[in-house]
Amino acid sequence: MVRKYSIVFVLLCSICFSQTYPIDENIMESVWEDYQPPTNTPKYLVPFLNEQGNEITRISDAGVFGTTGQNLRHHYSLDQPWNSDGTLIKLAGYPAAILDGKTYKFLYWRNIPSSATWSNIDPLKMYGTSGKSIVSYNVVTNVRTTLKTFLQYEEIDYGINKGNITNNDKYMPILGKASGVIELIVFDLKLNKVHAQVSLPSQPNWITISPLGNYAVAHYSFSRVDVYDIDLTQAPRAITNYTTHSDFGIDSFGNEVYIAFGDLETRPNDYYMKMVRLSDGVTTPLFYHPNGYGVWSGHISARNINRPGWAYVSEGCCETIGKKEIFAIKLDGSNTIERFGYHHATYKDSYQQEPHAVPNRDGTKIMFASSWNGLFITEYPPAFIVEKK
After folding, report:
1. Considering the entire predicted model, what is its pTM?
2. Where is the signal peptide (predicted)?
3. Which residue ranges form the domains of the chain, and what is each CATH number?
4. What is the C-alpha to C-alpha distance for residues 115 and 126, in angstroms, rounded to an integer?
């Protein structure tokens, strides 16, 4: 009997020690301490432990890269830096720095296409645009392949630099412009043809396709989010009229949702985030905390497509709960979070100084940009990765 219990104990302990995410916390039970600036100087590719006991590595360096430009950091919270199998990382800029996805060492420069994002299936492929054409791009051979050219438009744009293809690489959001006409195009990458298209009433801030491919979306910042069925045959539904730095993901129940910071209804009720179901517009308040001013004006990412049910947040506004923290929040209304630590970005200095935290595909690692409280003085700050150790 003792032997059986010992086996069970060993198994349970092995599960504990193999934990790849920070421990779950309830927001109301978490200890929210005042933000403390860092006291260390992070060295390039030298990991260290942060205040939460998680490991941080600085993965770019102005001297090593020979630049102080935007390719020192990743692009944005809506753009997945890791390829489909996690072996490669792309940073921002043209050319873009390509790094080893495991060691984070610099590999080579690549002239990637405009608005290029990784394939979710092929680890060597990206999709983007070149002029009026949709192209695929092989990051190893450095070869572009034209998939479709739109001569009828004056210009085309993939997602307006923020959109994403579906999780299965099926649909791609394209904006076409010609003679004052603005059209939303759903392009079928597998059949290599236009699936549907529709005229838009005005210029959106960005467009995308929902993760599972059920909806096309036009996002009008600080105005509304219009949701179309994927065939674009029905009038759009405005699911919210209060938008922030947000993303589209999948909640804990398998629903496609829009995840954003709180609005004029949720915030007075002490909920500082929300998710809106794309199928019917039902809103679920998130991040409840009645004591103090909650998270606000950071960025949200749901690029963790292999870990549905969570979204990742880099807080950035004010003297708030969780000031300058990076955390994951469970998309079930349970008030559950995982805290990864501070990003130490000088958020208000300029747009390029913002952290724009984005998780890898299984949400075990998070990339963010940071001047480390003003330590790095380049125009674009270096990129960091935080992970549970």
Report:
1. 0.94
2. 1-20
3. 21-78+246-389 (2.40.128), 112-244 (2.130.10.10)
4. 10
